[in-house]
Amino acid sequence: MANKIQKPRGTMDIFPSDTPIWQKIESTARDVCRRFGFGEIRTPTFEELALFKRGVGEVTDVVQKEMYTFTDREDRVFALRPEGTASVVRAIIENGKTSDTMPLKYYYLINCFRYEKPQAGRSREFFQFGTEMFGTKDASADATIISLADTLIKELGIKGITLHINSIGCPNCRPKYREALVEHFTSHIDELCDTCKERLKTNPLRVLDCKSQICSSIAKDAPATVDYLCDECHDHFEALKAHLDAMGIEYKVDTRIVRGLDYYTKTVFEFICDGIGAQSTVCGGGRYDGLMEQLDGPALPGIGFGMGLTRIILAMKESGAGQIDENKPVLYVAPLGARAVSKALSIVSTLRREGVYAECDISARSLKAQMKYADKLGAKYTLIIGDSELDSGKAQLKNMEKSEQREIEIDNIFSEIKEA
């Protein structure tokens, strides 16, 4: 007997019983973006591998260890997208959007792919809400992006989340910080994990982000990025803090926040929810002022964030905000006989066109089975029609919640339901 086909490890099946909370997040995100003036952008699920190597960074874990790549029939190498920003930058450049009115403001709801060890809040196919803003280097843009994320999190009813912010400097001041960081970790080289020993050669900032208990302990005494900022980066970070204070957005300066991708500069931030397990970052982002140039575009500063939907769901449930009202029919029509089935289909079809959720039996159930089904669906009203009701033009409309019923003219069902 052949092995039963199952979904790939690290992916998920999402059924109608689960989708209401996903739809709640997506609709709220779209509405918040509308109020902030962000428009939706949709990019391909796969891109040339070179885009992510150049955009994300060849020495990042994402590119070195986590990419899903494939070669097509013409020997071109592609990759399933591991994140959204690089694709958006490529789309802006390719479609000539760099000449549009600034700033450019986009959002997306996408699926991404990374080969990681699956655990709560981390999967190999994951779903992400993200925003991107290009064309302004002012700290007020950073504050706006953070405010958008903060607004969405609060409107979803999530509690117990802390905003952590940091500045990792720019190409002007980072070399001096890098030297201090390498010096600190080199003095503990024998204690570092093998991954961090390699990171020390290629991207020392990533050592600060290691989850190893020993490496984390060594990192606690490492130099802080904010102590090595140039005047421009220092003033930018101070302005950001002033803007957040003015908007009433609470934050914690966390010099260990560095983010995992090479393109970040200056501001980096994370929204952290401690109650959902090891994968506690529900939203992360920052500024990437050189990314557009890195991908052969003009010098356009950028900032944005990515928000994992599965982690947001975990945080909503942890906050008691995970119960979403189910979609229940307003009317269930129970037909008895062929003539009644046609009439029932006519009634529910008209109501559906009018925007009302209505159901009727299409499985030739008995009346008893139909009533049990209507109750299971949570129908607010039921209408039983058979030959006698069709002949008289009258039937009993039952309020299922109150167990009350009254006689109505069948042809008046539309006004009765709308009034109800």
- Give the integer mean of the pLDDT values: 92
**Largest β sheet strand count, sense and barrel closure:** 8 strands, mixed
Report the β-strand fraction as a percent range: 15-25%
The SS-based structural class is alpha+beta
Shape: elongated
What is the helix tally? 15
DSSP, total strands: 16
Sequence stretches where pLDDT stays below 50 over 5 or more residues: none
In spatial order, strands of the major sheet run: 1-5-6-11-10-9-7-8
N-end to C-end Cα span: 56 Å
Q: Taking Cα atoms only, what radius of gyration do you get, to the nearest Å?
A: 28 Å
Helix content: 25-40%
Quaternary organisation: single chain
Question: Quick summary of this structure?
Answer:
The protein has 420 residues and is an alpha+beta fold. It has helices at 19-36, 49-55, 61-65, 85-94, 139-155, 174-186, 194-202, 213-219, 231-247, 291-294, 309-318, 338-353, 367-377, 387-392, 413-419, and strands spanning 39-40, 46-48, 69-71, 77-80, 104-113, 125-134, 161-167, 252-253, 265-273, 281-287, 302-308, 331-335, 358-360, 381-385, 394-399, 404-409.
